[in-house]
Amino acid sequence: MKETTIVHVVTNVSHYKNPKEPTGLWLSELSHAWDVFAAKGYTQKIVSPKGGHVPLEPLSLKWPNLDASGRGWLMDESKTALLQNTLSPDSIDPALVDAIYFTGGHAVMFDFSDSVPLQRLTREVWEAGHVVASVCHGYCGLLNVTLANGSFLIAGRKMTGFSWTEEKLAGVTKKVPYNAEDVAKQRGALYEKALLPFTSNVVVDGRLVTGQNPQSAKATAHMVVQALQEETKAAR
To answer: Is the model's pTM score more than 0.90?
Structure first.
C-alpha cells in the first residue's frame, strides 16, 4: 500500500516591514496538524519558500496561545531540528504528495503569495487530484496559484482564512502588506468567515480544505484526513 505523504508549508520571514517588529510561523498551526497526521501514520515533510531556517512568531509562544501541542514540539529536539533545515519546494516530487498544507502567521503574507516554486508545487498536487489545504494566513499561498487553463485555483470555490475583521482586532492592519480577504475575493473565491472572530471555522469545497484562524488548525487537519480518505475510496 502506498504511504500517504503530507507536505507542510512554513515561512522563512522573521519580521514585518519594520525589522523591529517580529513575526514568523504560528507554531500551533503546524503542531496541531502534525499531531493529527502523525496519529494516522502519515509521512510528513516541511518545506519553506527558500528552504532552511523557520522563525517562530513570538506571540504564538506565549500564554494562552502556546498549548500542550506547541510545548511538546518545543521540547522535542527532533522536531525543533526540522525547522532549522526545511526543504525547498523544488526538492519535492509532486507525484509523491497526497496533500499540501499551508500554515500561517503574518510572516507568510510576505513570502507565500509570490513564490513561483510553491505555486508550481500546489498546482501539480491539485491537478493530480490531491488535497490542497491552508489554515489562517496560509491561504496567502493560494492567492496566486493558477491552473493549466489559466484560472485561479480558488476561483469559484468556497474557502476561508484569517479575516480582515480579525486583522483589525489583532491591531495589525497597518503592518500587513495587503488585505488577504479582499484579494481572495478579487480572485473569485467564495470567501466565508465565522460569525464570531477567533472561533474555529473550516470550509471544505471538495479537495480544497481551509481553516480561518489558529483556533481552526486541529479541525482543519481532521478535515484534510477526511478528504484523503474520500479520495482513497473514490480511487478504488
So the answer is: yes
